[in-house]
Specification:
The protein is an alpha/beta fold. 47% of the residues lie in helices and 18% in strands. Helix 1 links the parallel strand 2 and strand 3. It is globular, with a radius of gyration of 22 Å.
Length: 331
């Protein structure tokens, strides 16, 4: 890691913070003021803020945006290595026993730290906690709560996180010792890196909990949902394969990974089937839809397969209306 600066811009920081807030920054310049302003409103004040510039292409603009906060942050500037390396650099510079992760385009409600510090202080058996999240930005999901889309049910376990019965969000507050015991973030992963660490933490015996109060405003960026889905699925499959090969798993944990690998591959076949329709290749689309349905067993897919066999142009027209941005990613 090439670190160009790793100290407070000013000495106006707590001598012994209870929490270190770690903020990785890459292409978030237009949002960072709102992010840091939300820290100024926190009712719990004994924290330090560590901003990691992960090789931002607009570093001069980012540093200009950070100028009003120079007395409040530890600023680290490094060559671009991805969000995992940026978070690890922030954790490495942290002085507090609790680490709160905050993305550079998200914002916290005023009681975020107060409530999470109180929970971890009163429950020493808990290693990490995540809240509900309000989705904001220009996206069809804006205004909804994350747990309405990705619920968390019951105890958070390795198998349940793999099966998406509990979705641990990236806006998590954790004991630094638990993050380190889990091995920190994997710099080789540029997506699914958070799920990878949560699974390793759970496998190492960490206890993660959650609550339903929305204390984070998570920004959704413009872009194709299916394109995001493709990249996330690819890196998730890579991450699952790594865990299968490196962890001493129980039978339940191993089976959960194997089953989810099959499901993610099936979802990827759906994406590629849609793109085949865009390329006017109904034969490939039919093959991929059928392969996906052997795993997913959905009646809608069975109907789509029937239509594709009889009237492929009708299904192609529907897909173009339903996924208007898909053609941007057809190669």
């Amino acid at each position: 890691m090439a670190v160009f600066m790793s100290q407070p811009w000013s000495g106006n920081l707590p001598s012994q913070p209870a929490v270190s807030v770690v903020i990785p920054c890459y292409r978030v310049t237009e949002y960072i003021t709102g992010t840091l302003s939300s820290l100024r409103t926190q009712t719990f004040r004994n924290f330090e803020t560590i901003v990691v510039n992960d090789g931002c292409p607009d570093t001069s603009n980012l540093e200009h945006a950070l100028e009003p906060f120079r007395e409040e942050v530890v600023y680290i500037r490094q060559e671009n290595q991805g969000v995992s390396a940026a978070r690890n650099a922030g954790i490495g510079a942290a002085r507090a026993p609790l680490i709160a992760l905050l993305d550079g385009d998200d914002e916290w409600e005023a009681t975020y730290l107060e409530k999470h510090v109180a929970l971890l202080d009163s429950h020493p058996e808990i290693d990490a906690v995540y809240p509900n999240v309000l989705l904001v930005g220009k996206n069809p999901w804006a205004g909804r709560l994350m747990m309405d889309i990705y619920p968390s049910r019951g105890e958070v376990t390795f198998a349940k996180v793999v099966r998406q019965e509990c979705t641990v969000f990236s806006c998590l507050t954790a004991r630094r010792s638990s993050l380190e015991r889990g091995g920190l973030f994997d710099p080789a992963l540029r997506s699914a890196e958070d799920m990878d660490l949560w699974l390793r933490m759970l496998h190492s015996g960490a206890k993660i909990t959650y609550h339903s109060e929305p204390l984070v405003r998570h920004r959704l960026r413009r872009g194709s949902l299916s394109d995001d889905q493709t990249w996330i699925a690819f890196t998730t499959l890579r991450m699952f394969g790594k865990l299968l090969g490196t962890l001493d798993l129980t039978d339940e944990e191993r089976q959960a990974l194997v089953d989810e690998i099959g499901r993610v591959n099936a979802v990827m076949n759906l994406v590629h089937a849609r793109r085949a329709l865009y390329r006017k290749n109904p034969a490939e689309a039919l093959e991929r839809f059928a392969s996906a349905n052997r795993v997913l067993k959905q009646w809608r897919l069975s109907v789509a397969i029937g239509i594709l066999r009889v009237w492929p142009k009708l299904l192609s027209s529907y897909v173009r209306r339903k996924f208007p941005h898909e053609e941007l990613y057809v190669r």
